[in-house]
Design goal:
This protein has 492 residues and is mainly α. The protein is 69% helix and 0% strand. It contains 20 helices and no strands. The two termini are 28 Å apart. The relative contact order is 0.19.
Length: 492
């Protein structure tokens, strides 16, 4: 078992698992295999930022902020780029299936790794229920003979099987799911961009250039404050960018994968988020009834003249949902696996099959996902709403912990293995502290908004309960502290 005071692992180029693996008791020795290919990781990195929330949640953000929603996306995108740079620095130096949870364990103490690891697991198993239900709604519309709960069961069962077979099967499914998303959003941006300037053959839509950005009450029709309101509406659609740092631990060259994903996050966010939203608000007036009635992307495709736009978008959203389910189950199971390997979860979570799959961790994660689906159908306004709200701000907690961990891990890496600092956070530590301030501001601002106040309070309550459990557990077992040298040298 890897202890909080263990050093960064030395190179093991001949272990068959790629460089940067840990010593006995680590991910490699527990049986995870390097089954993800470079093309899998490339597509996971690209598609990881494109969630179903981008397709179905952008309409409310546009209504709240008008064309100024572009600034909301730009602000959140900048924050995510900075967080991913910090995470990339740590992950390139020490690839691990536990990712930020393992780094928090090392940098801040066992209580931090335990707490953020379990909160992240909780977040993703709740997401499983949300996405399974969303997919079931679409599938029931196509084939009403099967009830919604039946479709939810089917899609979760199928993706559970793919995760149980091998990490390669997960990677293959995710490669095609993400590929469809990337192709769809890319085609939307190209076709929509042509329509904006009136050069799309056979289209009567668009052609007004940038006029829709300012001609309906201005670029900020609801004032500058609406930018912050938009931030609250779009921030959670960015969750998932960090998945590639967990998946990199099961590739043949994790450092290269992490470095590549970290360096490309800027253009991924700029193209897929800002590019697609720009097309929507340039093609249509922000206050168009069609955006709210049909959704922003369907309304834009109707404006361009794409036939059967609603059904086309349903296919794309279903693909995004299945991708989120697939990667969410993978992510939850690998976090559970890492917690088990560090002694912060049942030991069975860290056991793998002959194919290198953490079977117990997968089944335990999907079992809670199934339970959450059942809660969603039985008590949607009570039990499931509580689960939803109590996990709502976890994404921001994760980003905050990444920032705090990187402040300490930079010193540890420089002291022990400076040659592994192949990805560096820009303007350290100033941008790190600035990002901490940005995330903290968003959390405080959420408390001032009635629609998000409950999310923050319940998420803080859930986090406090997990932290108390971690501290009590560490006190009982006597395993809570990092060694004296770490505490002294890692101070900032």
């Amino acid at each position: 078992m890897t202890t909080p005071s263990s050093r960064l692992a030395p190179e093991h180029p001949d272990d068959g698992q790629g460089p940067g693996r840990r010593l006995p008791g680590s991910d490699a020795d527990a049986g995870l295999q390097a089954g993800l290919k470079n093309r899998h990781l490339s597509m996971i990195a690209i598609g990881g930022v494109i969630g179903a929330g981008l397709f179905v949640g952008s309409a409310s953000g546009i209504a709240a902020a008008g064309p100024g929603i572009l600034l909301s996306y730009a602000l959140v995108g900048t924050m995510v780029v900075l967080v991913m740079r910090m995470l990339g620095e740590m992950a390139a130096a020490d690839p691990s299936s536990g990712s930020f949870s393992a780094y928090a364990d090392r940098a801040l103490g066992r209580w931090a790794g335990f707490s953020i690891g379990w909160l992240y697991w909780f977040f993703w198993v709740v997401v499983l229920a949300i996405e399974a239900t969303a997919g079931a709604v679409i599938l029931e519309g196509w084939m009403p003979a099967v009830p919604q709960w039946g479709w939810a069961l089917i899609v979760m069962a199928v993706l559970t099987v793919t995760n149980l077979v091998s990490v390669g099967s997960f990677g293959e499914f995710e490669f095609w799911f993400a590929g469809i998303k990337v192709f769809a959003i890319g085609a939307f941006i190209v076709i929509g961009g042509l329509a904006v300037f009136g050069v799309l053959p056979g289209s009567d839509g668009g052609g007004d250039g940038f006029s829709n950005l300012t001609s309906h009450g201005g670029f900020l029709p609801h004032g500058a404050d609406a930018i912050l309101t938009g931030v609250l509406m779009v921030v959670f659609s960015f969750m998932g960018s960090e998945i590639v740092t967990l998946a990199a631990g099961e590739s043949s060259d994790p450092r290269r994968a992490v470095s590549k994903a970290t360096n490309s996050v800027i253009w991924r966010i700029a193209v897929f988020y800002l590019g697609s939203i720009f097309v929507v608000v340039a093609l249509l007036p922000w206050d168009s009834d069609a955006i709210q009635e049909k959704g922003s992307y369907v309304a834009a495709m109707d404006e361009i003249g794409i036939p059967h736009a609603g059904q086309v978008m349903n296919v794309i959203v279903l693909t995004a949902v299945l991708s989120c389910l697939n990667s969410g189950l993978y992510t939850a199971s690998r976090m559970a696996f890492s917690l088990g390997g560090r002694g912060d979860a049942p030991k069975s979570f860290a056991r793998t099959t002959a194919r290198g799959v953490p079977q117990t961790a997968i089944l335990s994660s999907v079992a809670f996902g199934f339970l959450a689906v059942w809660f969603n159908y039985q008590w949607p306004d009570t039990v499931f709403e509580f689960l939803l709200n109590s996990s709502g701000a976890v994404a921001l907690f994760v980003w905050l912990v990444i920032c705090l961990s990187q402040l300490r891990m930079r010193r540890i890496i420089l002291r022990e293995n400076p040659e592994r600092l192949v990805v560096r956070m820009w303007l350290f530590p100033y941008l790190t502290w600035a990002t901490i301030g940005m995330i903290s501001f968003v959390l405080v601002y959420m408390l001032t908004e009635p629609d998000t106040r409950k999310q923050v309070l319940l998420s803080v309550l859930a986090a406090a309960l997990v932290v108390v459990l971690a501290l009590v557990r560490d006190k009982v077992t006597g395993r809570g502290g990092r060694d004296t040298e770490d505490r002294a040298d890692a101070k900032v």
